[in-house]
Write a structure and sequence with these properties.
Strand order of the largest sheet: 4-3-6-2-7-8
Helix content: 25-40%
Number of helices: 6
Number of strands: 8
Amino acid sequence: MTGTATRFLYLARHGEASPDESELTNNGRRQAVLLGERLRDSPLSVVHHGPLPRARQTARSVCEQLDGVPSQETELAGDYIPYLPHREELPADSADAMLTHLSQFPAEERERGPEPAEAALARFAGPIDGDEPRHELVVTHNFLIGWLVRAALDAPKWRWMGLNHGNAALTVIRYAPGRPASVLFFNDMGHLPPELRWTGFPPDLHP
C-alpha cells in the first residue's frame, strides 16, 4: 500500500530582470547559473517554472547546470497577487500603507490572483503520495514565495506581504507526514558573490 513521503520544496525567485522584464540582465544570467551550480548535487526530480520570460530563462539556465532534471512550465508559478486583505485583518498602524501599495496594481491583477494561489498550495505544499522523499524546485516570483512561506508558518493570509526574496536566492520548505511544515532556510544567497546579492530587494531593506 502506497503511503505518503516527505516533500522538500525548493523555491527560487528569477534572476534580475531588465527594466521592461522581457529578459534577464547580465547579472540575472550569472545569478541563474550560480543557482544551478548550487543545486547541482541536490536530488531534484523536477524544476517547475512560471510562464514569464524572466522565470523561464532562469529555469533554463538552472537546468543547464543539472544532470537531466526535467522542467515544467505552469501558470501556478506565475506572478500574481495571492491574497487581498481586508482592512480589519491588518495591523492598524500599517493598514493604510499596505492597502495603498496593493491599490497600485491593476484591478484585474488584484482579483485574479487568489484562485491560482490556492491551487499552488494544493499543488506544491504538503507531503507527497509515495514511499520516497521528493525534491522539487519552483522558479517563480516574490509574491508566490511569500505566500508559500507564510502558509508553511501558519501565519495569517495577509502576511505574504513583507516576505521579500532576492533574485536567485533560495528557500527550502520541508513537508513531512504527520509534522508541521518546516522552513529549513529562507532567502539564502550563499551561492552568490556580494555584488549579485540583494538585487530585487526594496532598497530601504538592503543590509
